Amino acid sequence: MHFVTPTRCTSLPDVVVELDTPRAPDFTRYRKAAARLRSTGVTHVTIADNSLSHARVSNVAAAFVLKNEFGLEPIVHLNCRDRNLLAQQSTVFGLIALGIRHFLLISGDALALGDNPSGKAVFETDSLGLMERFQRLEAGVDFFGRTLDEPLDVCYGGAINLGRRSPAHLQRMQAKIARGARYFFSQPVFAEEDLLRLAEAQDKVGQTAAVYVGMMPLISAASARFLSRVPGVFVPERVIRSLEPFEGEAAITAGLAYAESLVQTAMAYGLRRFYLITPFLRASTTAHLVRRIREAMPRTDRAHGPGRMGRSFDSDVKSAHMT
Fold it and tell me: How far is CA 113 from CA 54, 118, 161, 260, in A?
């Protein structure tokens, strides 16, 4: 396989979908989910990096499958918990060699949450330090100061950890923007007050970066209660209780209805970009939400077609840089 020199990073559409890899090597359901998403018009798929510290199939392998078998553009998450900088650079160069250049750079969840709570995390750097090294790649220098043959064109963004402290996450966002972050994905949002805070964050960063609202359709009261225990995720108790009377498909329908109401609220606040997290490879729920978002988009936004449901963040950034 020859080295593919990346062209300029392509624009992200207004809707991107996360499709996390399975916890065993069988990719049958994963491929079916990818095909379902592609048939709905999804073009960009994010792939988490052992999220919640659970060991999963490598997202590098998944990125190869998505790009080469389905023509989807992967956005690969890279955490700082599992690799030292030598392994990080090796992974990044391998992905670029495969023609993949979109990344989400994160520090990583605590090991205590997952499969190996007594294990040793690496954390040779954090997401800010990793972004600084990506800036070096754009300048034609590798992580360790070695001059490359040419600058590498990479697109990267970061996560928004809303937590409960607004000033802290806004300061963190500004620090990431200063290190080249062009987009931000929030953790899944289940409360109107978090949508308001995301709208405030988008106002603060203006056109220098795009803010994507994380949405994950709830599929049961049990899943909602589990998510409420994940650090940085807030699920109101009333939402959990509202799902308790339902089971099976009825619970999924109720969860989708609530997600649709959040989409409408987000749009009322001026938020137009969505990061949809597929629960347990249930691509049908995500596909349903993609269609509802498309229908809810203003007509001028929908004119861009299924792959680009509205003005891309890249066009916003170019406009900002011209002024």
Answer: 8, 10, 16, 29
